[in-house]
Structure formats: structure tokens, C-alpha cells
Write a sequence for this structure.
């Protein structure tokens, strides 16, 4: 990341039927509250954390990944992103946590 760039970080959790969608919505609301023009950022790193304890093979539904795709599409055509999906024993089956760092 460039020297002098404003770096913004957000960490949110979602629960229930669409935990990833909820966490992304909370991040967007946090950015608005802080007057951060999140979707103007040129570089984005996202960590998505889900439960490693789930008895269900599907931690996140297709609606979550549709929401993730839509979220990323709001950054426009000229941005860089890296993202990863991580299993955590600290989360319940219906939870997802998202860490987003952007500048």
C-alpha cells in the first residue's frame, strides 16, 4: 500500500441465515458512519471467517456469495483485491466474521 494512503479497517460478525451478507452490510454501515468512501478505495483485503465446527457441509449459502460478489462489484473496475476463507473453531455454526482492510 502506498505511503500516505488512508488505511481503513473494519471487523464485523453476521449471524443466522445469511451471516456473510449481514457482516458486509454492517461494514458498509460502519464506513458510512465514519464518512469513509469505502467503494472509492483502490486496494482491498478481505478475510472471511466461518465455523470449523459445523455439522453442515454448507457454512455459507449461495445468497451469501451473491452478496459478496455484489459488494465487490461496487468498487468499480480499477481496484485490487485479495480475499481468503478461513475456518475458525471460535465461531458458532451460524456465524461469519469479516475483516476488511482498504485504502
Amino acid at each position: 500500500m502506498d505511503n500516505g494512503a488512508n488505511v481503513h479497517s473494519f471487523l464485523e460478525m453476521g449471524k443466522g441465515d445469511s451471516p456473510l451478507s449481514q457482516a458486509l452490510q454492517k461494514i458498509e454501515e460502519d464506513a458510512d458512519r465514519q464518512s469513509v468512501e469505502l467503494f472509492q478505495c483502490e486496494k482491498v483485503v478481505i478475510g472471511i471467517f466461518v465455523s470449523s465446527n459445523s455439522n453442515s457441509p454448507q457454512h455459507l449459502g449461495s445468497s451469501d456469495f451473491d452478496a459478496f460478489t455484489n459488494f465487490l462489484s461496487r468498487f468499480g473496475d480499477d481496484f485490487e483485491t485479495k480475499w481468503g476463507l478461513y475456518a475458525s473453531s471460535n465461531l458458532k455454526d451460524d456465524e461469519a466474521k469479516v475483516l476488511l482492510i482498504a485504502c
Summary: Helices lie at 19-33, 62-73.
